[in-house]
Amino acid sequence: MTFVAIKNLKKQYGKNLVLDIESLELQKGRAYGFFGANGSGKSTLLKCLTSLIDYKGEIEIDGVNLKKNPKPLERIGLLIENPAFYNDLTGRKNIEYFCKDTSSIDEYAEILQVKDILDKKYRTYSLGMRQKLGILLACVKGKDLIVLDEPFNGLDVISVDNALRLINHCREIGVTVILTSHQLDVSQKAIDSIYLLKNCRIKEFIIPEKKSGERFLFEFANKENADAAEKLIGSLAVEYERTDNIFKINSQGKFTFYDMIDKLKPCEYIKAEDITSAVKELYLEMEKSV
Fold first, then answer.
1. 3-state helix, strand, coil in the chain (%, to 5)
2. CA–CA distance from 27 to each of 13, 109, 166, 290 (Å)?
């Protein structure tokens, strides 16, 4: 089912054409990633989709033309550029201020692991905490569509994993998700299709399916934690290589990346990465073909 439809979308700044999309259709309940070099038009596209800037052409959301009726915007959650909140309000009060329906706030805060900061004033938040509150607001408000511009900026490894869990949860309950990111290997864990923006144009590429032998990299801060992790990994009957405090694990189809994160969390890893994907290689091929 087509949920977002774009026709003849153009955006110019003076004589400079920065966006020229003839046709684009996005389906309900799927997640899409938009990639491209700095200045390729990614953020401009998201701002057009959310009516933050004017544009030529047509954008329909759930069959409604945004220029004629902005009603669909009420059910769009967005995080574009830096999150903006009220310093003297708590995280919870900020979300309640911006959202009519906050029934999902505690459930989503649990997934994102931010319940402990919700009742603290925003002025006390670190950069990463502010980014996480921005993601939470977008997901709570986005009953139909969530738009995220570089959502993983300023987040540590565990926070990125939690953000991916929340994005995947929203997608699974039928919300359409659109995001941009420079972190290709991270983003591919939450999206179904990727688009490359280059020279004002856009082209779609389907992410290749992962093979059964998924490979993960985990790094630990010290030898003690690494030794504990090795005992745990050894008990799982999977293949692995260890170099100092770094492990490369072949799951052999027995465990997902998230399974391994849960199992190794007690060992306090400092880096976790799914190294199965060939998304970076695919991106280079995309650059050559557009």
1. 35, 30, 35
2. 30, 26, 19, 23
The pLDDT of residue 206: 57
User: For the stretch 51-63, what's the b/e string if a residue is b when 16 or more beta carbons lie within 10 angstroms of its beta carbon?
Assistant: beeebebebbbbe
The interaxial angle of helices 105-112 and 91-98, nearest 10 deg, is 130
pLDDT digits 0-9 by tens, 275-286: 765 555 555 555
Residue 195: CB atoms within 10 A of its CB come to 22
48 or 192, higher pLDDT: 48
User: What is the spatial distance between Cα 171 and Cα 26, in angstroms, rounded to a whole number?
Assistant: 13
Residues 268 and 232: their CA atoms lie apart, in Å, by: 13
Each residue of 111-136: pLDDT tens digit?
999 999 999 999 999 999 999 999 99
**CA 7 from centroid of its chain's CA atoms:** 25
